[in-house]
Amino acid sequence: MVDLLKYARDSEKHDTVVIDNLRFEVECDYIKIELQSEHIVHFHVSHDKAKPEPHYENQRLGRIADYLVF
Are 43 and 18 in contact (CB under 8 A)? Predict the structure, then answer.
């Protein structure tokens, strides 16, 4: 993922990229560490009727988000 983001930045000249599905806190941490020179904002979307995903860290990701979207 990080390699793709760096390629999009360097070769394709993208200045905005959206990752629409992070499952684990470590994924978010890794992206922030590897791309620390970039402006990264973490939005976490929460929906009352969403199907629970017990293998994913949704609650933890919500707690570390920069913004919560309901």
Answer: no
Q: What is the pLDDT along the chain (70 residues), one digit of tens a residue?
A: 999 999 999 999 999 999 988 999 999 999 999 999 999 999 999 888 888 888 999 999 999 999 999 9
Distance from C-alpha of 64 to C-alpha of 24, rounded to nearest angstrom: 11
pTM equals 0.81
Residue 15 tokens read as: 């200045």
C-alpha dist (Å) from residue 61 to 8, 16, 32, 33? 25, 21, 13, 16
- Comparing CA positions, the residue from 63, 67, 17 lying closest to residue 2 is 17
Q: How far apart are CA 58 and CA 37, in angstroms?
A: 26
